[in-house]
Amino acid sequence: MTMWRVTVKPSENVNAWTTYVQQGIIAIGWPKRSDDDAPQVLRFQEIQKGDWVVAHVPEERGGGPCLALGVGCVLGPYHEVRRSELPPGDMWNGDFRRQYKVEWTIGPRSLRPILDYYRGTVHRLEPEEEAAILRSYGLPPR
Question: Per-10-residue mean pLDDT for the chain, 142 residues long?
């Protein structure tokens, strides 16, 4: 199993987190279908069922310095939803919402000692970072 940090984009901010919780997903938007070879999209598609994800909101995007809003376990495969298929009022950035179903453990946690760096929207964490984050949420390692 692997843990991934998914950083909430400025245009999505905390509204994205509300969508994540209400719909039981983790997602990223991307402007065009031709961007499917963008490194962040390809990295996001590496996530597997059973992996962990951390929803990360950096300070400049309305969160704390290294604030995680929740940690979740991925329940299913990668899926794309076209903007036209989203429910009315569902704000999203891009033509597609790329997503996975997730079971969330909710709660803000300051992860400054663990995640005090930025490496793009989607980043695979080291095993020791994963273990520290799971401990902060009181979850057993998988």
Answer: 80 71 86 68 93 79 63 94 77 75 88 70 90 90 72
Interstrand relation of 122-124 and 96-110 (parallel, antiparallel or unpaired): unpaired
Place of tokens 């992996």: 51
Residue 3 tokens, joined: 């843990």
Full residue range of the structural domain in which residue 83 is found: 3-136
91, part of any domain: yes
Residue carrying structure tokens 């095993």:
127
- Report the CATH number that the domain containing residue 120 is assigned in CATH: 3.10.590.10
pLDDT in tens, 17-55: 788 888 899 988 766 666 556 888 889 999 999 999 998
For residue 109, the tally of other CB atoms under 10 A from its CB is 18
Phi, psi of 54 (to 5 degrees): -115, 125
